[in-house]
Design a protein that fits this description.
Shape: globular
Helix content: under 10%
Order of helices and strands: EEEHEEEEEEEEEEEE
Number of strands: 15
CATH class of the largest domain: Alpha Beta
Radius of gyration: 20 Å
Number of domains: 2
Largest sheet: 7 strands, mixed
Strand content: 35-45%
CATH topology of the largest domain: Phosphorylase Kinase, domain 1
CATH architecture of the largest domain: 2-Layer Sandwich
Structural class: mainly beta
Distance between the termini: 14 Å
């Protein structure tokens, strides 16, 4: 498998069904108490719809799908709205403030605008040396020195280094196609219709 680059962004998706999947093992005792335990990490996936497209518009997408070879090869995709920052951190260059080990979900960051809500709960971030995308679980407010604490989910799948850059806007998800078969519709008016399923690479 290989990283084949960035998924085409034009034409853009018309709608996205975004999914957050966490496997949870649930058991019940004889006293009917339920015990719950998370298995593994959280994986993001989505189904996206396109508008009707001309042959010229769709052919680059079709070529990329062929190059992806179903779920074999991976690529980055910026998901409209989901990948964008809703806080005020745009223009900042946030960095990890002190090395953090895998399994941690609270991270100190710096390099922020002063005394403002730089990230909102539900924003997503990606660290420079990570393929995994993480979701911010609480608003992140910077101090008067441009530092803040960021809570994320899931916990880090691997450690991050001090001063590692954090992507906060147009965050690329590392994905593969979620199916071996890609179905493409062509109507009598020669417009193409297409829906695509993608799942995050862990």
């Amino acid at each position: 498998m290989a990283n084949i680059g960035t998924y085409p962004s034009d034409p853009s998706f018309t709608a996205v069904n975004f999914k957050i999947e966490t496997n949870t093992q649930t058991t019940r005792s004889l006293s009917l108490k339920r015990f719950r335990n998370a298995i593994g990490t959280t994986v993001f996936s989505f189904t996206a719809n396109y508008p009707r497209m001309s042959r010229t518009e769709f052919k680059p997408i079709m070529a990329f799908l062929a190059k992806a070879r179903g779920p074999l090869n991976e690529f980055d995709v910026v998901i409209p709205e989901i990948s964008s920052c809703s806080g005020t951190a745009l223009g900042s260059t946030p960095k990890v403030n002190g090395a953090v080990s895998a399994g941690t979900s609270t991270i100190s960051i710096d390099g922020l605008a002063l005394s403002t809500t730089v990230l909102k709960a539900g924003d997503v971030v990606r660290f420079t040396d990570h393929n995994k995308v993480y979701m911010v679980t609480d608003d992140v407010t910077s101090s008067g020195t441009g530092t803040a604490t960021m809570n994320i989910t899931p916990a880090l799948t691997s450690g991050v280094s001090n001063n590692e850059d954090i992507t906060i806007d147009d965050v690329p998800f590392r994905m593969t196609l979620n199916n071996d078969l890609q179905e493409i519709g062509v109507g009598t008016e020669l417009f193409y219709t297409f829906e695509v399923d993608m799942i995050e690479v862990i």
